Amino acid sequence: MASHCELWLPKKKRFCANPPLADSQFCGNHTQRSDSKWILCPIDPSHSVLEENLDSHLSRCPLLKQTQSLTSQPFYQRGINGGREDEEEEENAACKDSIFTSEMKRNAVYAMSAPKFLELIAKIKSVHSSICSKIPESYKIPEACSIWTKTQFDRKVPYQEKHALQQASILGNLEDFGVLKKSGFTCDAIGDSNGELEKDSDISTVVEFGAGRGYLTQMLADCYGIKKVLLVERKSYKLKADRSLRQKESLVLERLRIDIEDLNLNAVESLQGVAYMAIGKHLCGPATDMTLRCCINEHCDGHTSEAATGYLRGLAIATCCHHLCQWKSYINKKYIYDMGLGKEDFNAITWFTSWAVDADHGSELSAVDSSAQFEIVRRSEKKEVVGMESELLSGVGDIVRNMEAIDRAVLGFMCKDIIDIGRLMWVKQQRLVKSELVKYVPLCVSPENRLLLATTMIN
Prior knowledge:
Layout: E1 8-9, E2 14-15, E3 38-40, E4 48-50, H1 54-58, H2 64-71, H3 87-92, H4 102-110, H5 114-131, H6 146-149, H7 161-176, E5 180-181, E6 184-185, E7 190-191, E8 197-198, E9 205-209, H8 215-223, E10 228-233, H9 242-246, E11 252-257, E12 276-284, H10 286-296, E13 312-320, H11 333-338, H12 343-352, H13 362-366, H14 370-389, H15 396-402, H16 405-429, E14 434-439, E15 450-455
Parallel strand pairs: 9-10, 9-12, 10-11, 12-13
Antiparallel strand pairs: 1-2, 3-4, 5-6, 7-8, 13-15, 14-15
Helix pairs in contact: 4-12, 5-16, 7-8, 12-16
């Protein structure tokens, strides 16, 4: 029997060094199993397993214990914030949990006829001009964050200037919105679970969604007086801010490793009867919609209960990765329908958003005054469409290839605006005092520069 796998590796110019399986010339990675089928692990879909080995794998999957522990928690409720398809689509769906991937969206766009594609582009521009008025720029670097923006903090903490500027502007906008004060997070007197007024105006609890390593909360803890932090993140990270945060004696830190889609925030024991502020930096795709449901508790039934927003005092979500957005989870389908669009159009719009970030367009777009950007591109697009209409026999692929990169980028930003304005309109329909969508950093810092703000406080 060979001492090593018999598969030749051309790039390394040697055989695989792994030991072979019993009664085989190859190792487990290279054994030929043409008659076997690989399927996604039902516990952790990030990896696959042979169908014939599924039963044995389920008993030893690395995430089994974690999943069992999570599902036993009172705040775990599978799919509570996931949204749902339209009823007729849900009945016909082969799999309700299926994800419409970027590749599927791209294929659907390229399968369009040229006239239909051009009609969709025209409709996007029409919707944007009628609904998406100029989104205000709001670049805020508060004095309270100077220890970070001027790099006066502990140098052992991982630091990148562009992230520090984004984090500082998020907090600066919250301060300008009246949610944060220099002395810390403040709120008006609120009712507790028994209807009595809480007189402690120093309540300061923050829930960070999609927390990652937690450095947005780290800056918040260093620069403002907060007492309690809840970090929500589904993945495990190294170099987290948790260790530094736990060294703060007056700060209570709790981290929940859970998907936002499955989090019932009202059932988290540490938040019972507590006013909190919700924050999130770059909540990818559907995570923004799920966070809005989680905080405002609209869920799938379309009704907002009084208790749902009872303790939410402020919200700041930096949206991101719009190309990952899903029709099922999008928070404001009615708005899409009202604009004369549908599910297929929405999927195309989400795919177009990738054009805004597929290259460094910051310098090109920044060179044009923001108020004139779209007018200049609209004029160039009008000329371009005239040329396209004379070549309708060409496919969508040819039309896309003939578009200038800057024109594709601006169309991508238009689509981002349409998606985020829909979210803002949904928030405005809820019982919140004030809400706004702003550009919180320049494009040269990050093309993902939209920030959704809301507050339930009367300033």
